[in-house]
Write a structure and sequence with these properties.
alpha/beta, Rossmann fold, five-stranded parallel β-sheet, binds flavin-adenine dinucleotide
């Protein structure tokens, strides 16, 4: 007799939603994670009375009313609206690109002037089908915005020259001809008061949890505990990288407590868009919850190369990696009683609302088959 119906590998958002849905339908689950905490990348912790997003700024936004209601059943959300700024060599610009940005860039005050300015900056090369990210960006927003706000940031983020990056990375750029600094178009947006960790803890309340434990340290033992495995880790690692390693971009986070400094940058998110600053953004966590504490906590985000053994963050979904993933997917589909889900197992960048949507859908399937 196995002790559990399900073994869930990974206590991130995907694993937690699945665990919650299964256990509220009477299934007995155990969830393990190699990190020393639950939550995966949405993990938040309290530092000097400030909720810190340990693995980068996480702003919940969605158009899906069902997902919004679902997540609100676990926490109260505030009215935070993401309005990041860009710092280019000491000068600030509003994001996403909107009339405020165009005014800061060119001094134009009407949408008509802004459109004319952008049109006048599209070069001949970019009138045809753009061949790389640089041409694509210029075709969408013109030369000045590209050089000031896109080039350096994107090259740091991907560790490659913009002319070497495929155009599809920025198929669409949010450009608005209104004075509106709200980054997202989604109907619902906010930050859970008190952070994401309490949400995950509630979701995992009825499951047994084992932390600091890598599934692969004793896969046979962990498998022996349950009838079915829900695997949310890296898909290539599951198959011992038999076809090769999937490409990712990784991140290094450097967090500092600034004592007796109540307000460092006046905004939660400031992007650094020049090529010389080694980090891409600084997060000042207290502004996610409109904090009034005497101190502040900031995190600098440095993009770094990925290698096996460090945390993978952004999948590099180019043709080569997508083909590789397809081969792993074929293997995954042949596994009995093992299901793969979440951003690492599906080799896909997912926003939180998409993760919840997928986890709910998949759990419905598990429940109807088992
Ligand atoms: P994860 O959170 O990665 O969870 C997987 C878990 O599995 C991890 O805890 C890992 O330790 C564990 N694990 C892996 N392998 C093993 C193993 N072998 N044994 C045991 N445990 C294992 N989304 C938004 O909607 N809004 C945002 O503002 C936003 N900002 C983001 C910023 C950054 C920098 C990043 C990288 C992502 C952001 N996201 C955002 C996306 C969000 O983080 C993801 O949607 C979500 O975290 C994915 O959840 P998951 O459970 O699939 O993966």
């Amino acid at each position: 007799m196995k002790r559990y119906d399900y073994l869930i590998v990974g206590c991130g958002l995907f694993g937690a939603v699945v665990a919650y849905e299964l256990s509220r339908n009477g299934k007995v689950c155990i969830a393990i994670d190699k990190r020393n905490h639950v939550g995966g990348n949405v993990y938040t912790e309290c530092v000097n009375d400030i909720i810190v997003h340990k693995y980068g700024a996480h702003i919940f936004h969605t158009n899906n009313e069902h997902v919004w209601d679902y997540v609100n059943s676990f926490a109260e959300f505030n009215r935070y609206t993401n309005s990041p700024l860009a710092n280019y060599k000491g000068k600030l610009y509003n994001l996403p690109f909107n009339m405020n940005t165009f005014y800061q860039m060119w001094g134009v005050t009407t949408p008509k002037e802004a459109r004319m300015k952008i049109e006048s900056q599209k070069t001949e090369a970019t009138m045809n089908t753009p061949q790389n990210l640089e041409e694509q960006a210029i075709s969408l927003v013109g030369k000045d915005i590209y050089k000031t706000l896109i080039k350096g940031y994107t090259e740091k983020q991907w560790g490659k020259k913009a002319v070497e990056l495929p155009a599809f990375i920025i198929r669409r750029l949010p450009v608005r001809f209104t004075f509106d600094n709200n980054y997202f178009d989604d109907r619902y947006q906010g930050i859970p008061i008190g952070g994401y960790t309490p949400i995950i803890e509630k979701m995992l309340q009825k499951s047994d949890i084992v932390l600091d434990t890598d599934y692969f340290s004793d896969k046979k033992f962990w498998n022996s505990l349950a009838d079915t495995v829900i695997y949310t880790g890296e898909i290539d690692r599951y198959f011992d990288y038999c076809y090769g390693v999937l490409g990712y971009r990784s991140l290094h986070f450097k967090t500092s407590i600034l004592k007796n400094q109540s307000n460092f940058q006046g905004n939660a998110v400031v992007n650094y868009t020049d090529a010389d600053t080694p980090y891409t953004r600084i997060i000042e966590h207290k502004h996610f919850e409109f904090g009034q504490q005497a101190d502040t906590v900031i995190t600098k985000e440095y993009p770094i190369a990925f290698q096996t053994g460090i945390d993978p963050y952004y999948p590099i979904n180019d043709d080569k990696n997508n083909m590789l993933y397809k081969r792993y997917l074929q293997l995954a589909q042949q596994q009995e009683n093992v299901y793969f889900g979440g951003r690492l197992a599906e080799y896909k960048y997912y926003n939180m609302d998409q993760v919840i949507e997928c986890a709910l859908k998949i759990t419905q399937n598990y429940l109807s088959f088992n």
